[in-house]
């Protein structure tokens, strides 16, 4: 018996070692103790949807996987801190013990507090009553990857030669008409002249500032990325761009585009509904703000010495070429 | 021909045209000063030229009417309305868009959204207003100048 948390970047296994009756006793004790010892988790840190999902799961209204997503969210955001232990492939299992369901139900009904629930799981893990194994296979994704001063660890997939001397970083909003036009007409030229030649690699970072739909569109692109269709979905979004907050990028439309591309709709909708990539998008926007991005599109060209040049607006490929030549000659 | 009013018209044209081509990103300042009108943006660019030219004409003629013929400022106001409408349309994603949103909050955001979603109709409307104002001013000037001429003759 155990829990497997499958994240894109992490995989955790929780192994249960004790008998059912002892678990219940321990859980009750821990719930009391955790209230005394650990007050580090504030109620505001846990989004209401996590609690709702716990309640629904305890009533068998949603699947276990959906509840796990809530726990994943808590882990990803370090609300729930998982101590790392040694890798043990034999510990892997896909089932959550039933007593966890009981506590989730109590938590959802406010019979125990937020911090009690989170801390109880943390305590169980820290005491190795349940064992967490972190066998991260994509650890590189978790590390902060920087190009110059830009944190690109949460950017879209890189395009072009990974070893290229120059990096082009684009900050964009899917609802921005100029971004869409640039992508439709200028990007192919840039790809042909600069990216395919191996001179530069290209990163797309979301800077959603034109409203709710911008944020949702950015999230949906990463939901498509979960199914390895980021580039196709992004291309489709830029093709469909048709104004600001007028419905072309609302939930139904975004799901419709995913359907058109033949994505797994259940997985895509679940990703979008649970805001799986919300923090990733927020992080990316923050990266832009830190670098003085106020509108879109904005590009930064960074060379191997971290020398950076900014290109503001939907400029043609020849300007990128000229900037690269200038950086090369320096 | 009054050369001062031709200069005034040119000055008004440039003072509208230059900011507009920067805001609508036809003239880039960063990293190089660079003027670029892609084929797919040609209608937009032409509309900016027309709006700027009509604004130059309408405002300089309105000033002439007000200064020499003590006419009302009504037509100047309609000319300004046309100019503002035309200038605002399409100022979406660049610096102006975000400035509107950050300064005016939700109202600015709504304005940006409106101005962007209805860019072409707004531009056409502003050209319509400016063209109509121009024709009215020409008509008025002809009438008023004739009247004054008649008065002097008597």
Structure characterization notes:
The complex is a heterodimer of chains A (330) and B (154). Chain A has helices at residues 20-37, 48-58, 64-76, 98-108, 114-126, 139-142, 177-195, 212-225, 230-240, 251-260, 265-273, 278-290, 317-329; strands spanning 2-6, 11-16, 130-134, 146-147, 150-151, 166-172, 200-206, 298-302, 308-312. By secondary structure, chain A is α+β, with helices and mostly antiparallel strands. Chain A has two domains: 3-138, no CATH class; 146-329, Glutaredoxin, CATH 3.40.30. Chain A is elongated, with a radius of gyration of 23 Å. With 154 residues, chain B is an all-alpha fold. Helices cover 79% and strands 3% of the residues of chain B.
Q: Which key features would you list for this structure?
A:
A: 330 residues; alpha+beta; 13% strand; elongated; disordered N terminus; B: mainly alpha; 5 helices; globular
**How large is the share of residues in beta strands of chain A?**
5-15%
Query: Which of globular, elongated, flat, extended, rod-shaped describes the shape of chain A?
Result: elongated
Structural class of chain B: mainly alpha
Order of helices and strands of chain A: EEHHHHHEHEEEHEHHHHHEEH
CATH fold name of the largest domain in chain A: Glutaredoxin
Give the count of structural domains of chain A: 2
**Radius of gyration of chain B using CA atoms only:** 18 Å
Number of strands of chain B: 2
Strand sequence of the main sheet of chain B, in spatial order? 1-2
Tell me roughly what share of residues is in helical segments of chain B.
over 70%
- Give a quick account of the main beta sheet of chain B: strands, pairing sense, barrel closure: 2 strands, antiparallel
**Helix content range of chain A:** 40-55%
Strand/helix succession of chain B: HEEHHHH
Low-confidence stretches of chain A: 1-18, 33-44, 85-94, 132-141
